[in-house]
Amino acid sequence: MLLWLVIAYIVVSVGIGLYAATRVHNARDYIVAGRNLPFIIVLAMVFATWFGAETVLGISATFIDEGFRGLISDPLGASICLVLFGLVFARPLYRMNLLTLGDFFRVRYNRNTEVALSLAIIVSYLGWVGAQMTALGLVFNVLSDGAISMNQGVFIGAAVVLVYTLFGGMWSVAMTTFVQMIVIVLGLMYVTWLAGDMAGGFTTVISKASADGKLEWLPTFDRLDMLAWIAALLTMALGSIPQQDVFQRVNSSKNEKVAVWGTTLGGVSYFFFAAVPLFLAYSATLIDPSMVERFMDEDSQLVLPNLIIGYMPFAAQVIFFGALISVIMSTASGTLLAPSVTFSENILRGYWTDMNDRQLLFSTRAAVVAFTIIVAVYAVSTDATIHHMVESAYRVTLAGAFVPLAAGLFWKRANNLGATLAIVLGIGTWLMFELFIPEGDIEPQLYGLVVSAIGMVIGGYVGAKPHHRPQAGHGRAASGTHHVTH
User: Which CATH number fits domain 2-30+45-94+115-394: 3.40.50.150, 1.10.10.10, 1.20.1730.10, 1.10.3720.10?
Assistant: First the structure.
């Protein structure tokens, strides 16, 4: 009965997504929802960017095991990313009226930079979207009491998300996410309130977590501990800034003010609401310590689903799994669209120079199908946890894409040579340490970030001064279909 009710909710969500698809008339509608989205929907989409399987199943399990010290990258780093993007990056990028971040790299630097960083961005999504598909497989497995295997659940979930993302693009993401956010917030608060009562009250749970040392989050004064803490923070806080899904949400806003404050407040909302699944998970350690201990050894991501099924009334089970499905689908749809748009706009379109609007729309949809298949296969073939998949996703963009983006926007001397050195040296250094010294004292991507910045500075002073800096509306606009090369 529980499984069928959740399936009914999924059908409703797909229906909303397909209804939203009726608003898609061209590539601009599909990719940035016609730049018509109001504040509340932008805030909901930004919030849902991060509030996915990672937050409910991943970091909640990590919190039980490691406490706040294990969550420096997410939610702390993730929230800082969204706030920084809103306050610092959103305004200048929104004014340029581009479709993708890859467009920025082409306009500010050249075609080679566009291709290199677009590929890096696309690759970074493999782990993130894979985490959502893994979570969908886990949910179907738990709800069916094992009748649906994890792998079968992954492919079922991938097919569901694909249907409405394929047809409605950003309009479907916007409308379904708005409804799903309401379900997420109300559902999780209700279930957490019940769990808190079962565990002896709010203060009892907090006191137990504090006594167990789970609320400590600052590093010690040990040099290596501080470096590890900084690396975890920067990987998510800076490495996820040059990401197409965040940019796409900003770029879908109906005006600049919505772009800035929808993103900023979405990040703040995420930080505070991420505490809800943490509290819920830690309540489980008081309600049934032996169950928690068993699943921490077996698969920590199963702690929350089994707590709900084992101890919650039926209505709360329906609400929780409805909210969990909402969480996953809202994140998965946006993160499927982002790399697909990047591929069609910044890789394919550069070789298909006379591509018209209809062809761009078709190629983006084809890319959505292809990326869904790739990610589903990856999700069933990897043994990485949800938390690890998400945490690993941003290493390449931190090492290679952050410096060219930030310098391109805010440093007048940033030029083609600087961008090339930043990418080659940053990613090269990261890969060298990742392959040969992966367990070193400092995270490999931190070396990559530092060397990338050095490469940009050297190139900026040695290479030729850039002839222009991008202005508002410069380049291939979100409303246009022409191709601009430099």
Answer: 1.20.1730.10
